[in-house]
Amino acid sequence: MAGRGTDWGERGLCRTADPDDLFVEGAAQHRAKALCNGCTVRTECLAYALDQRIEHGVWGGMTERERRALLRRRPMVSSWRRLLETARWEHEHTQGAVPARPRAS
Ligand code: SF4
C-alpha cells in the first residue's frame, strides 16, 4: 500500500491491494497505473513520492521512470505537494468558468 502512515494513505484505492501489484516492472505497471486513475488521493500520493524521491513502484499514477523524468524537467520545485495542490485548486475553481464579457457602454 502506498502512503502508509500519511494523512491520505488510508484513503488510497490500493490500501487493500497486494504491494506486489504496485511494485512491478514492465507492462504490469500499466495495470498498476490503471488502479490509480480512480483514486481520490492521487495528487497527494504523487506529490509524496516526488517530494520523498521514492525510486520504486507506481505512485500517483506514475512509474518511477516517469517521476525521474519529471524531476529532471523541474529541478527547482521545492514542494511538489504545494505545487500540485495549487494546480488542483486552480483547476477546480476555474472549471467551466467563462471569461466575463466586457460591458457595452
Ligand atoms: S494513487 Fe495509486 S498508488 Fe497512490 S494511493 Fe492511490 S491507488 Fe495507491
From TrEMBL:
It is found in: Cytoplasm. Upon Fe-S cluster removal intramolecular disulfide bonds are formed. Keywords: 4Fe-4S, Cytoplasm, Disulfide bond, DNA-binding, Iron, Iron-sulfur, Metal-binding, Transcription, Transcription regulation. [4Fe-4S] cluster binds at C14, C36, C39, C45. Residues 13-69 form the 4Fe-4S Wbl-type domain. The keyword Ligase does not apply. The keyword Nucleotide-binding does not apply. Pfam families: Whib. Its cofactor is [4Fe-4S] cluster. It comes from the Bacteria. Binds 1 [4Fe-4S] cluster per subunit. Following nitrosylation of the [4Fe-4S] cluster binds 1 [4Fe-8(NO)] cluster per subunit. Belongs to the WhiB family. HAMAP family: WhiB (MF_01479). Acts as a transcriptional regulator. Probably redox-responsive. The apo- but not holo-form probably binds DNA. This is Transcriptional regulator WhiB. The lineage of its organism: Bacteria, Bacillati, Actinomycetota, Actinomycetes, Kitasatosporales.
